[in-house]
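Late entry, written up from scratch paper. The run itself happened at the end of the previous shift, but nothing got recorded in the book at the time, so transcribing now.
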Amino acid sequence: MGRRIDRRTSKRFKVCEDSFGFITNESKILCKIKNISSSGISLITIENAEHMPESFDTDIFVTGRIFYLKGVPSKKISEFHFDSKNPFTAFVKSRVGIQFGELDSGQAAQLEIFLKNHATIEDVSAL
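Output as recorded:
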């Protein structure tokens, strides 16, 4: 099997443990943020990513009402399914790669605040 080519143009960063996202389609799907950049985000969900629409809005938030960025235009660009390492759960997790669409100036400013205050300085682009 060939090696996967990473086409990202922005550095990706880990986030604090209490950072989450909502994918909004007919309902809201709660996801854990795996990593983030200025141009996209990687999310972990127990929902079936195959049934996600190709385009949707993503909300990014930190628990405790510290931060909330609403309605980021998004597009699913990849998904990967993996089984839970816990033998006592039947959940199958999905890792979903999302590319951000065009952000308005307020969203872009809020995203920069999130990256500055809630993302680590550790670049995970090579991982």
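The radius of gyration is 14 Å.
(Scratch paper discarded after transcription.)
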